[in-house]
Specification:
Helix content: 10-25%
Strand content: 35-45%
Oligomer: single chain
Number of strands: 31
Number of helices: 10
Radius of gyration: 32 Å
């Protein structure tokens, strides 16, 4: 920690005795329940700032709830995001995505076992917990205390102060320094005897490095940790990097070239070199470079070629790795002379010697039965194996991968893989209610390549937008930038960001559809833009071509329109239903109701445009009783310029 940070000792409460208090800077008040004079004001602003990762957040009412305690599931979600879990929901290089996949595959059986044991288990946080276990921030013993039984009742214990500090020290990678402390420490806490023996060194390490206040007084190790207290501890631990252990000076060092064989919880690596296969641990100040970019051990994978510098204690002082693996670049062979058959399914098993893959497929037989079938295929010597269009190797094929394959007989020549869990990053172009894809709402996300994915909203799907969490799918806005974590075609979580803006211009086109209507506006600079009007937000029928509008937007959706001037030379509009259709190209439209009902006989011609929901129709597609919005070519004319068929 830098010594320039002012420390203010507050002894009025146990919590104030625990945390390091920081001065309040001139900042904007972000939450209505955290005024500028709040002891944790700067810390709360820091942990909720997107520039710092925004790994804590407020609620939909713009409250931070600083005095609320957290159960361990809630705390795990925050710690996971602080450790980088949130960034794994963005589009990442394959080596970073692999960290998430490995953590989930490794700890999924353990977590599903706890889920089956406790009805109060929060499965919605399992991926975050798996990530924390993989990172070494949590242990399986920690996780087994997330739900406990008292008699026949299940309870979710609240996070204690000593647990929060141990998790934090592990989070910043200082476990080895904490365990190296000698006990007893000078100037102990008054309630030192109440601190768990396994946690005591972590607590004193946090005190010695300024993460918590510890100049005498009590620590209250089993007391509960508030959200404000957690924010201050995060700020003290993460806002400024704790002092590093100086590099080893002198002593014997050695350089080894080899290949990574295995990784062990980001603290130990197995490397095979000319001298054999050995395990090495990382020094606390080890510098790790992957493809010339400084990284953490999480980015290292089996198969990478490495050069390491070790000290006399066999600790790695520096490591340079390349994502290029030892295998030669595969050269796909031409497919056999006969046309390849194609199929798709799920990978069940892989063997490298001999090279085979077992794939489970589904087919429907002649009487409509769904048949699940597992088949073992041999992999052609130079088969084209790709993942997301990028060449890969058979050893990187994983169980539960989605496989699209071309084969002849029982030999696969082309194998395209898609992970069961993956990230989709793009723009939300459409949201549909629960009348598609098995009765589930769906979101349409367009990625940078122009491909759109139709993804299902599940009951457990979590949604966030900006700083606000626990939203519904329809709280997102068309045009939002979204990052979605997807399991097959099902949405696990979606994070959206949008921006409120204002624009103005002349209305040039109106498209009315069942779900969301569109307006096109000629902007002052000469360009045009199209915006979405969702049902119930604005009466789109009151708009007329040529009107000048002031428009308030949330992403691409209109949230308010002010008409600043009417349409010049406005063409007449008829809103009603078709009563009859005649062979000469004319139709009779009835407008109004009751005694105010009027009939209009209007004529179409080759210039008349007819649309419905964005699709162009022909005159022959019109039907009696259709609701229509009709624009005539001129005042006092009965010739139709456009017909829009309404829902």
């Amino acid at each position: 920690m830098k010594n320039s940070k002012t420390v203010v000792a507050l002894a009025l409460t146990v919590l104030m005795a625990m945390v390091l208090i920081v001065p309040v800077m001139a900042q904007t008040q972000r939450f209505q329940d955290v005024p500028p004079n709040h002891f944790a004001f700067e810390a709360i602003n820091w942990v909720t700032d997107p520039a710092n990762g925004a790994f804590m957040w407020g609620d939909a009412s713009n409250n931070f709830n600083p005095n609320s305690n957290m159960n361990k599931f809630e705390a795990a979600q925050i710690f996971a995001m602080a450790a980088g879990f949130r960034h794994l929901t963005h589009t990442l290089p394959p080596e970073e995505q692999a960290v998430f996949t490995r953590s989930w595959n490794q700890y999924r059986p353990f977590l599903e076992g706890l889920s089956g044991q406790f009805s109060q288990w929060g499965v919605g946080t399992d991926r975050e917990i798996a990530f924390l276990l993989y990172k070494g921030i949590l242990t399986q013993s920690d996780v087994q205390s997330f739900v406990v039984r008292v008699g026949t009742t299940e309870q979710r214990p609240l996070l204690t102060r000593q647990e929060a500090i141990v998790w934090t020290v592990r989070l910043i990678g200082r476990s080895s320094q904490a365990r190296a402390l000698t006990l007893p420490q000078p100037n102990p806490f008054n309630d030192d005897a109440q601190i768990s023996a396994a946690y005591r060194r972590y607590i004193y390490y946090a005190r010695n490095t300024g993460i918590i206040q510890g100049a005498g007084g009590s620590f209250d190790p089993t007391g509960h940790f508030t959200r404000a207290g957690m924010a201050v501890v995060f700020f003290n631990a993460l806002a400024e990097t704790p002092e590093q252990t100086p590099p080893v000076q002198g002593g014997a060092t050695a350089t080894i070239n080899g290949t990574i064989t295995a990784m062990h919880h980001d603290t130990q690596v197995t490397i095979t070199s000319a001298a054999g296969t050995e395990n090495f641990t990382f020094a606390s100040n080890a510098v790790i470079m992957v493809d010339n970019v400084q990284r953490t051990p999480s980015f290292l994978q089996p198969g990478m070629t490495v050069t390491i510098l070790i000290n006399a204690q066999r600790q790695i002082l520096s490591l340079r790795a390349s994502t290029a693996v030892a295998d030669p670049t595969p050269t796909p062979t031409p497919p056999p002379a006969q046309t390849l058959q194609t199929d798709e399914g799920f990978v069940e098993a892989i063997t490298l010697t001999p090279a085979t893959v077992t794939i489970r497929t589904q087919r429907v037989n002649i009487i409509g039965q769904v048949i699940n079938e597992s088949r073992v295929f041999s992999i052609a010597a130079n088969a084209a194996i790709t993942r997301g269009g990028t060449p890969t190797y058979l050893r990187y094929v994983q169980p539960n991968d989605i496989a699209f394959f071309g084969f002849a007989g029982n030999i696969i020549h082309e194998l395209e893989l898609m992970e069961r869990e993956r990230t989709v990053s793009g723009v939300l172009t459409e949201s549909r209610p629960a009348d598609h894809m098995g009765g589930m709402p769906t979101l349409l996300i367009e990625v940078e390549s122009g491909i759109s994915y139709e993804l299902r909203v599940m009951p457990a799907t979590s949604f966030t937008r900006g700083h606000v969490h626990n939203l519904n799918w329809n709280d997102l806005r068309i045009g939002d930038s979204v990052v979605a974590y997807v399991e097959f075609d099902r949405l696990v979580s979606v994070h959206a960001t949008g921006l409120r803006t204002n624009t103005s211009g002349r209305l040039t086109q109106i498209l009315i559809t069942e779900r969301n209507s569109q307006i096109t506006v000629a902007l002052p600079g000469g360009n045009s833009d199209t915006f979405i009007i969702m049902p119930g937000v604005f009466d789109v029928y009151s708009l007329r071509i040529g009107m000048h509008l002031e428009i308030m937007l949330d992403s691409r959706e209109v949230i308010n329109i002010t008409v600043t001037s009417g349409a010049q030379g406005q063409n007449p509009v008829i809103l009603g239903f078709i009563q009859s259709i005649r062979a000469d190209g004319s139709i009779v439209v009835v407008e109004g109701q009751g005694t105010a009902q009027r009939s209009h006989t209007i004529q179409t011609n080759t210039s008349t445009t007819i649309t419905r929901g964005g699709s162009t129709l022909a005159f022959a597609d019109l039907r009696v009783n259709m609701n229509v919005h009709i624009v005539l070519t001129a005042p006092h004319s009965n010739v139709v310029q456009s017909i829009t068929v309404l829902p």
